[in-house]
Amino acid sequence: MAQETELSELEGATLGIVWDIQPCTAYAIRRVFLTSPSPSWSGSAGAIYPLVERLSKRGLVVSEAFRTGRRPGRQYTITPAGLETLRAWIGPPIQPWVSGVPVDSLRTRVRFLAALPPGKRDRFLADALAGIDIAIRAVDRDARLRLAEKNVMGHAVGRGALLTLRARRAWLREVRALTSGRRFSRRG
Amino acid sequence: MAQETELSELEGATLGIVWDIQPCTAYAIRRVFLTSPSPSWSGSAGAIYPLVERLSKRGLVVSEAFRTGRRPGRQYTITPAGLETLRAWIGPPIQPWVSGVPVDSLRTRVRFLAALPPGKRDRFLADALAGIDIAIRAVDRDARLRLAEKNVMGHAVGRGALLTLRARRAWLREVRALTSGRRFSRRG
DNA sequence: CCGCTCATGTAACTGGTTACATGATTTA
DNA sequence: TAAATCATGTAACCAGTTACATGAGCGG
Question: CA–CA separation, B78 vs B80, rounded Å?
């Protein structure tokens, strides 16, 4: 049977989580998204429950029904085909858009900073730097936690988030130095 | 009239582009997305044309019909209400998810690196580092270009992308040093 | 004049969102 | 035992995607 091998970002991440914490329920997968310090997705029930069923229909995971008391539930496990698909999704090869510049909603906003009156501009930058500091503390704490539980990759991912945030902080300070006390029109 | 003040990311960015390059056609807006070195969105016609009409209906932009030869077209300009909405969208205040950890599809994949056999893992990292280097060169060239045209904010945004990519490169090298020649199971 | 790119849209689809419904389990 | 939270879904909606249609202008 002709097997689709492509996965969306959410599908890839979900399949990866199944691989990581299997056997697991859909709710356990949701919790990973919900408690992640970098919530790329809402981890809403409306996304996850249909998604894992989709993966199941494609033979990438198998589910086993169980019951606690009277309530039915399903435990999901990755299949060999699922692992293969997960590996293909991770890469190599790596698509240029994956290794290229990541989306950054803060950078998007800075692009239009000149649309703000000077006072508001300063407050924007102060606000952003404060927000980044908060995020840095949270991520740093999380990374140390992973290290303590000997979760090597979890720690590495946390380090990645941390280094990204620090780079962004350094950059915002550059922007502040550049713009403070200067006047800008649309074209700079 | 009760004016919705919320904008999606694409709507905010589009409104910002109108502010930046007005008066402009929908196609000119598309070109900005299409030629951007960090293509967060496809800039597809099916997204932009309906979107600007939506902005127009909300009174955030106004359009003036023109005609070249027999072909009709529209030039869009931001309204005072539109500028206000744009400013509100930019912030302050800045939502935590905006200043927090940005999504990074490469980091997502690294999270599941232990699912790859060791050889493929090494190739993944080599591939990723090569891809990042390519992106760095492209972004650096773009940033210098903006500087040359005295586009201060354009240059600043390019710098932001550059610093992010460099941080990611440094991080990937950490990951490589950490994993090369080591064996990993799911839980590290 | 043929083909290519510029330009302006429309149509159908879909993945992920919010909101809702409901049952089980824990806690005050 | 009432309230809150855990857990398992379903339903409606919608923004952004790909694919299509079509016309203008230009280069060979």
Answer: 7
